[in-house]
Design a protein that fits this description.
Layout (H helix, E strand, L loop, with lengths): L3 H8 L1 E4 L7 E4 L1 H4 L2 H12 L3 E2 L2 E2 L3 E5 L2 H13 L2 E7 L7 E8 L2 E8 L8 E9 L3 H12 L3 E10 L14 E6 L1
Parallel strand pairs: 5-6, 5-9, 9-10, 10-11
Antiparallel strand pairs: 1-2, 3-4, 6-8, 7-8
Helix pairs in contact: 1-3, 3-4
Organism: Nocardioides marinquilinus
GO molecular function, one term: glycosyltransferase activity
Pathway: Purine metabolism; AMP biosynthesis via salvage pathway; AMP from adenine: step 1/1
């Protein structure tokens, strides 16, 4: 059986200078098209929501957009619900909002005010940990709902951007560190 890290190394394609010069985009579409690779990655990410084989989270939160692609099957694997964190203006009901800086811009994320039960334990799932701004803003949104982020699981950590430093004591599972 292929490990999540092996699947990433084999199936994620670097695209230089996208979406702008100097950025190396990590294209996960070949991974999504490979059932065995995707299965291995989802299983490895879901392990971040378990302790001693037992599920320790009540929900998975995925950040727009690629966090949706991985967070939803991780939630299914864990047997818990999935909650999307969206870009501003995409959710139809009352929301909490947080703005933050990206490695090449600025963004605002939102979550429905009633998306998480007070006291819920939440695993945050995304594709890449870069500067840490997306995870930090999402953690603040989870807290605004009265829930608690108990871990972060990502496909790849871009260690040269030092995003881990913004997580504080929040445990990070990265399947591949670059």
């Amino acid at each position: 059986m292929t490990s999540g890290a092996e699947a990433l190394a084999r199936l994620v394609v670097d695209v230089p200078d996208y979406p702008e010069p100097g950025v190396v985009f990590k294209d996960v579409t070949p991974l999504l098209a490979d059932p065995a690779g995707l299965r291995a990655v989802v299983a490895a990410l879901a392990d971040a929501g378990r302790r001693d084989g037992e599920v320790v989270v009540d929900a998975v939160v995925g950040m727009e957009a690629r966090g949706f692609l991985f967070g939803t099957p991780v939630a299914l694997e864990l047997g818990v619900g999935f909650v999307p964190v969206r870009k501003a203006g995409k959710l139809p009901r009352e929301t909490h909002s947080r703005s933050y800086a990206l490695e090449y811009g600025e963004a605002t994320l939102q979550i429905h005010r009633d998306a998480l039960a007070p006291g819920a334990r939440v695993l945050l799932v995304d594709d890449v940990l870069a500067t840490g701004g997306t995870v930090e803003a999402t953690r603040e949104l989870v807290t605004a709902c009265g829930a608690e982020a108990v871990g972060v699981a990502v496909l790849m950590e871009l260690s040269f951007l030092h995003g881990r430093a913004r997580l504080g004591d929040l445990p990070l599972t990265a399947l591949l560190t670059l």
